[in-house]
Amino acid sequence: MTHRRQFVLDLSVCALVVGAILIPSPAVAQCDEPDAPDCACFVNGGEWDAGGPGAYPFTVYIQDVAEDSLVLPGGTNPVRESCPCFEPDPTCDWDTHPSDPDRGFENGGKAYWQMVLGANSEALALWWAELMADDTVTMEFAGREAWCSETVSYWHRESAIPYLRGFLSDWWEHWRISNVGDLKLWYEIAEGSGGRGRWIDAAEIDYHDFEPGVNAPVPGAYIAVAEYDDVAKEFPNLDWSHSMIVDEMTVHRDGHGNVFQVEIEILEGNSGNRVRDDSPWDDLFTFTPQGSGWEAHFSGDDGIMNTPDDILRKVYGIGIDLDQFGQPYYDPARLHEEDHPGMLRAVLPSPVTTSDPGWDGYAVLLPSLIQYAAFAQQEGGSQLKSGIIPGGFQSLPDGNPQNALQIPETFVGTITVQLPGPHPLPIAGIELTWGPGSVPVGYSVAFYDDNDPQGTSAAVPDLSNHVPPGGLPTMVPVMLDEAMTNVVSVQLSFPDGSVPPGTVLSDVMIRFEGGPWEDASSEAQEVQRGVFVDVKPGSCPNSFNPRKNGVLPVAILGTFSFDVTTIDPASVMGAGTVAPLRWAWEDVATPYIGGSGGCHTMGPDGIIDLTLKYDAREVTQAMDLMSDGGELVPLLLHGTLMGTDTMIHGEDWLRVLGK
Question: Could you tell me if residue 459 is inside a domain?
Answer without folding.
Answer: yes
